[in-house]
Design brief:
With 326 residues, the chain is an alpha/beta fold. The chain has a single domain (4-318), classed as TIM Barrel. It is built from 11 helices and 10 strands. The chain has helices spanning 25-38, 52-64, 86-100, 147-159, 173-180, 201-209, 241-250, 254-264, 276-283, 292-299, 310-318; strands at residues 4-6, 12-14, 18-19, 42-44, 74-79, 107-110, 166-169, 189-193, 213-217, 268-269. It has an 8-stranded parallel sheet with strand order 3-4-5-6-7-8-9-10. A two-stranded antiparallel ribbon has the order 1-2. The longest helix is centred in the first third of the chain and has 15 residues, at 86-100. The mean pLDDT is 97.
Length: 326
Amino acid sequence: MQDTLTLVDGARLPRVGLGTWKIDADLLETLVPDAVSAGYRHLDCACDYGNEEAVGRGIRAAIQTGACRREELWVTSKLWNTFHRPEHVRAAAERSLRDLELEYLDLYLIHFPISLRFVTPETRYPPGWFFDPAASHPRMETEPVPIRDTWQAMEELVSSGLVRNLGVCNFGCSLIRDLLSYAHIRPAVLQVELHPYLTQEKLLRYCEQEQITVTAFSPLGAPSYIPLGMSRPEESVLADPVVAEIAQRCDRSPGQVVLRWALQRGTAVIPKTSQRERLAENISLIDFELTSDEMQAIGALDRQRRFNDPGDFCEAAFNTFFPIYE
């Protein structure tokens, strides 16, 4: 039985999940059953990843072989930016459910506090960031929708049984505080970028105060972003001398040390890997513990270095300046 975190309503979130961002769909049909066999029960997905159908086939294969039952899995998906209008929320969730071959989602998150113009699924799915990629000067096109309206439509998904828990991604304290002022169903989970170079101490403390469980995406830092030109090899925390020294002392890999640091901070983690040999390594985190000095040494590496920042990548990749954290 995998170690879990208990959410505010009593649901149990497995502390280590498989992140599926940037994993080729051709790999996932077999990678998901392999992950389940390795002990994973938490799968982190999203419309925007463009691979939910492949994840769904993988889930079906794992269940059919008896490796797990549906109720043993925790499957997260996310509402994309173009579906924030209340009239589009249910259809977006139903599309993810259809692709994942599921009757319900364990967790549904607002992917970004960014509302873009609606793109019909018949036009393009997943919709991506551009409204019209074929335009002479393609850009993101916003469509202002209050988060309150989107959240109320998501609450209806819980009432209808399509979703068990709700949450948000890439939100800061101010947006969460505003959300809490009107939410009938409180956000159970915040998913944000967290790693030793971006420790987000105040955000974690605030979420603990409000009983919001935190999931760390990109918990290993730079590696996922180097191929995208959003980080540099020398920014990898896995090569940091402090992490390397602790890994040698613990007889563990640098990745295991960084993930264990995240678990001891009270967060869940969703490391991405398409390498089967890494699956077992990334989930083998429970049988060792970092000392308080080691925890402090890793925490002191904070550079406030955010790799996944719309204020940077939207302008570079989508011709639109769109900061959300400032």
